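Hey, quick one: can you model this chain's 3D structure?
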Amino acid sequence: MLVLRLVKVGKKKDKIFRVVAVDSKRSVVTGKFTEILGWWNPHNDKFELKEERIKYWLSKGAQPSDSCFNLLVTANILPGPKRKIKIKSKRKEQEEVKTEEKKAEEEKTESAGKTETTETEEKQTEAKEEKKEETKTEQKPEEQNLEETTDKIKEDNKEESKENKKEENTPDTSS
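Sure thing. Here's the predicted structure for all 175 residues.
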């Protein structure tokens, strides 16, 4: 089946599109077109189209893509309203995938019960601890040493307080 579509040509930030007739199974990147039918510059919205050849290919059964169809409507080659073009950004697609994964996880946890929730909580705490360790390695050596010494002091204080409590709780048998 033959398709009329736009092919990107030009520089990286200065794109110009060619309107081409190409086999629908063939990739646009290959550069093998049946015929070049015109061009369109989206920056200044200028275009030049071979109206006779476009009508010829449409009469042979070629189907225009949505963007090409809208360009042909603008040029008054085809009658009718423009088609809506749905363009999804990569971020939105990734967000949709993440929300679907979260929903699936929630459904699994609800069906499995409380045992899995405790496991997920343990995994989350382990992940937090790993992140803390990573941040410690990323810190400057001076800061890392300070944190290590403060951690050691805190542990020593805890041990001393435990020993003091034990001594207070034990009765004096010496008197």
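One thing worth noting: The chain has two domains: 2-74, 90-153.
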